[in-house]
Write a structure and sequence with these properties.
about 300 residues, alpha/beta, Arginase, Chain A, eight-stranded parallel beta sheet, two-stranded antiparallel sheet, about 35% helix, disordered N terminus, binds manganese (II) ion, Agmatinase, metal-binding, agmatinase activity
Length: about 300
């Protein structure tokens, strides 16, 4: 009889190069939670797909001229897992996410959370508020969508509302790659004068990165990447694809410059919904996670 083994135990990049928790500077936190997806489902399988694809990522980063696994990578067990029809309320997901990220940050770890749906980011950001009492940090969001609705389909914790929750926390934001918003969101952007760099401006204006960076007024930054912010030709495996997103090198340059100029306190990579018979989306996501680790390691002189 075949015994179905869980693949979620695969550590990022591979067990040969995994560090112990104590020796790790970076913790990868899988959060396979999906409850409010509005179009194509499957993001609860995103974290495992990224971990599996990461086994194929080259250890040596040709841009950074280093094998970044040496900084110490530890992959945490999955939390808020809704796979196999497990029910997890949004409140329970936010509670366990905040508690887990806060514990990891308190232990001095640099945490990269993997979703799962974007509503998870509310819990992640709450953990950094808890870890940085009274100190503002900017939440930089790469996304096709504004996610600024107060409520969607009856829930304030729908994935279409995550940045509204961040704005409600009083944290400054920077939104990049946006190309799909509703009237309510457009009005809020104007009313609060939120810095937004739309995808069509990014294509037309080569100096957008300079201007985007100039809009960040805090030393500390949290980066949340909804993978649908990237062009869907690069990452088709998302729940709500939108044409015309960031290209690979544009994205990497933008992110690398944030790491170089600011203290990035944490990151998340959200909304991967794998497609059968194509590994492009999860491999691109895995490579992006390794780039986040690399840019942070260089910025921290690790
Ligand atoms: Mn989105």
């Amino acid at each position: 009889m075949l015994v179905q083994t869980s693949v979620s135990s695969l550590p990022f990049l591979g067990s040969d190069v995994a560090a112990t928790y104590d020796n790790a500077k970076v913790v990868i936190l899988p959060i396979p939670y999906e409850a409010t997806t509005t179009y194509r489902r499957g993001c609860e399988h995103g974290p495992d797909a990224i971990l599996n694809a990461s086994q194929q990522v080259e250890y040596y980063d040709e841009e950074l001229d280093r094998e970044l696994w040496e900084v110490g990578l530890y992959t945490h067990e999955a939390i808020a897992d809704t796979r196999n029809a497990q029910k997890v309320s949004s409140e329970a997901m936010l509670r366990v996410t905040q508690g887990t990220v806060y514990k990891l940050v308190s232990d001095g770890k640099f945490v990269i959370s993997l979703g799962g749906e974007h509503s998870i980011t509310t819990g992640v950001v709450e953990a950094y508020r808890q870890a940085n009492p009274g100190e503002a940090f900017t939440v930089v969001q790469v996304d096709a969508h504004g996610d600024l609705r107060h409520e969607y389909e009856g829930s304030i914790h729908n994935h279409a509302c995550v940045m509204r929750r961040v704005v409600d926390m009083g944290l400054p934001t920077l939104q990049v790659g946006i190309r799909s918003i509703c009237k309510e969101e457009a009005d809020l952007i104007k009313e609060k004068q939120l810095p937004v760099f739309r995808a069509r401006e990014i294509v037309a204006q080569p100096d957008w990165i300079d201007r985007a960076l100039a809009s960040i007024k805090t030393e500390k930054v949290f980066i949340t990447i909804d993978l649908d912010g990237i062009d869907p030709t690069l990452i088709p495996g998302v729940g709500t694809p939108e044409p015309g997103g960031l290209n690979w090198y544009n994205l990497l340059t933008f992110i690398q410059r944030i790491f170089a100029a600011h203290d990035v306190i944490g990151c998340d990579v959200m909304e991967l919904a794998p497609i059968t018979d194509s590994v492009v989306s999860e491999f691109t996501a895995a490579k992006l996670v390794y780039k986040l680790i690399g840019y942070h390691a260089i910025a921290q002189s690790w």
